[in-house]
Amino acid sequence: MPLVAQGWTLNYEMLFYGMFALTLLLPRRLQLPCLTVSVFALVAAGFIFHPVQPALYTWTRAFSLEFLAGAWIGHIWQRNGRLWPLLLAAMSVGFLFAVLPAPSQAPARVAGACIVTAMLLGVLILERRGEGIGRFRLPLILGDASYSIYLWQGFALMAAHSLATHVAFVAKLQGAIFSIMAIAGGVAAYYLVERPLLRALRRARRYRRGVPIPAGI
After folding, report:
1. Average pLDDT of span 18-45
2. 64-78 vs 84-99: helix axis angle to the nearest 10?
3. Would you say residue 2 lies in a domain?
4. Chain-wide mean pLDDT for the chain?
5. What's the pLDDT tens digit per position in 148-174?
6. Residue 217 exposed, middle or buried by CB count within 10 Å (0-12, 13-18, 19+)
7. Residue 200's domain spans which residues?
């Protein structure tokens, strides 16, 4: 596990970066089909063999299918393909898995992934039609602070859990309180930590461009 718990998502990113790099060795017409076969093979291996080694357990889970869906959406977008069929398919599959009774949480995860995919497709369809999305202040702030929210959510979770053990009504609303604390903490970290650091780095880069730097540095 990574030092920061939510860094588990980076394990999937590393896998996909490696797979993308390998597909570049293939002819272009074979790249996406081979990537698709590889990802489905990994997920199938996870269902069949149930690996317990951390890396294999991570890389054979169905989360990889979300990256693959993004690759196909990007491919269709670049070729000006029709996105409506994908949107309808994502909504249909999401609804099916949402109402499907099952002993595990897998259907709920698939349904959630389909909902997110449908939202992405909806945005892309609006962009293609030239309608776009209005510039609202709050979504822009949340978008700018998204990485800080991602990094600081662990602290919010610990704080919400601690409150829930001492305050009764917090336990009933733990999910909502956690979400509010994670967003608020992430936005605060963005303005107090991330933005000042980025500004300092930009100033340092501008300074280095204007001053001769000895060779080897």
Report:
1. 94
2. 160
3. no
4. 83
5. 998 888 887 788 778 777 777 666 777
6. exposed
7. 135-217
- Whether residue 3 is contained in a domain is answered as no
User: Between vectors from CA 186 to CA 184 and to CA 188, what angle results, nearest 5°?
Assistant: 70
Going by C-beta distance under 8 Å and a sequence separation of 6 or more, which residues neighbour residue 139?
none
Q: Does 9 fall in a domain?
A: no
Supply the pLDDT for residue 90: 87
Picking from 11, 52, 98, the residue whose alpha carbon sits closest to that of residue 3 is 11
80: alpha, beta or left, given left = phi > 0 and alpha = psi -120 to 50? left
Q: How far is CA 93 from the centre of its chain?
A: 20
Task: Quote the pTM value.
Answer: 0.71
User: Is 146 within the bounds of a domain?
Assistant: yes
**DSSP assignment of 80-136, as one string?**
T---HHHHHHHHHHHHHHHH---SSSHHHHHHHHHHHHHHHHHHHHHHHTT------
What is the DSSP secondary structure assignment for residue 25, as one 8-state letter? T
Domains contained in the chain, number = 1
